[in-house]
Amino acid sequence: MIDALDNSTADLLDTMNTLVNDEITPAQANAVVAKAKKKRVKYNIKTDAGRAKVPAGKTVWHTISPHKAIGWRAYEVGGIFKCRNGHIFTLPNSQGYSWEDALTAALAHFSVADAPVTTTVQDAVDSYVRDLRIRRGIYCEVESRKRLERLCEDLMAIPVHELTVDTLRNWFHSLKGAASTRNRVKSMLFAVLNASDIDPLITRKIKSLPTGDTSRNLLLSTEDVQKLIDASTGSMHYLTRYLSETGTRLGEVRNADRQDVDFTTGKMHLSGKTGVRDIILRSETLEWLKDVAPGRDGSLIPSDSGCRYKSGEHTYAFRRVVKDADVDPDCVMYSLRHAFLSRCVNSGISALPLAKYCGTSVLMLEKHYYHQSDEEQMVMINAVSL
């Protein structure tokens, strides 16, 4: 209130004393306040003379448009211009500005401040993987970032709002590798873009490629799995046996250290594609794992070089195993996981505990492994007691 009144200190004190000390009615108080408001001084900061009248230490604002204003902060000598549009900003070197100079500088600041934030694909990737780290752990963040930045390098500098169907389609068709791999990369990038509020109609127009991926179609028999174990030697033998007995992903065992296994309780800590989880190992698996020498880097099942398996290092070695075992040449490491899941389903394990054990979703298991006929569904529903 003091700043809003003129320099009539005596009048101001009289008004305050009346409000504080006198016993007055609410109507009288309102009248006193209304009288004080009439004495409010309006300073014209658009002129040199008007700015000179502003008391030192006081800031006077002049609205130039809704939610935007220019202010004059008076000092003992001179003053500076400020502007605000939700946030107060001091105009640099504005001591000698005229009103026109201050208006020009403020409008330039508002145009920059009000400009839409340009989010590039790189910005969207950074935001997405930070969230991925919180939800699924550092391994998912690192692996996803490496894959996206390597395979989407040509898109990283492009603002998300400038991406078109043609741009994304050309990028997708330029990817190398199997159709299933290219589809997975597309899904990763589109998850990033959808999280950054891209127009969903753009991503929906780019369809996945038809795949010839047989990793989920090829079902290894128990005899085929045993042939692979028998045909493998050295570190590949341990790796093949471990994957066939646990159904874990290759990336999860690559990340595993010997200290992740509690040989007393049989519990093993895993980290990989879908985050972290703990599983219980079979007693037979624990027995032979005890005899596997850990790698120099502490890895649970190291390569023959004594260090952790690198990405893709197993590929050619497993191809030789497949050839020596005389099984379907389409067999890949993932086929061991597929065989494990299929055996679990055939053994009567329900979807929920199996999904938790293998780090996947019930929806994925139902899509690929649990197939009920109409007759089976009829028997199941009739068995419910209502």
Would you write up a description of this structure?
The protein is an alpha+beta fold and 386 residues long. The N and C termini lie far apart (74 Å).
Please identify the structural class as seen in this structure.
alpha+beta
CATH T-level topology of the largest domain: hpI Integrase, Chain A
CATH architecture of the largest domain: Orthogonal Bundle
Radius of gyration: 36 Å
Strand order of the largest sheet: 1-2-3-4
Strand content: 5-15%
CATH superfamily of the largest domain, please?
Intergrase catalytic core
List the quaternary state of the chains: single chain
Distance from N terminus to C terminus (CA atoms, Å) equals 74 Å
Largest sheet: 4 strands, antiparallel
Helix content: 40-55%
Regions with pLDDT < 50 over 5+ consecutive residues? 1-8
- So what's the CATH class of the largest domain? Mainly Alpha
| Helical run tally | 18
The helix/strand order is HHHEEEEHHHHHHHHHEEEHHHHHH
- How many runs of DSSP E, i.e. beta strands? 7
What is the arithmetic mean of pLDDT?
A: 83
Question: How many domains, as an integer?
Answer: 3
Global outline = elongated
What order do the helices and strands come in, and which of them pair?
Elements: H1 9-21, H2 26-38, H3 48-52, E1 59-65, E2 68-74, E3 79-84, E4 88-90, H4 99-113, H5 121-136, H6 138-151, H7 165-174, H8 179-195, H9 200-204, H10 222-231, H11 234-246, H12 250-255, E5 261-262, E6 267-272, E7 275-280, H13 283-289, H14 315-325, H15 333-346, H16 351-358, H17 362-368, H18 374-382
Antiparallel strand pairs: 1-2, 2-3, 3-4, 5-6, 6-7
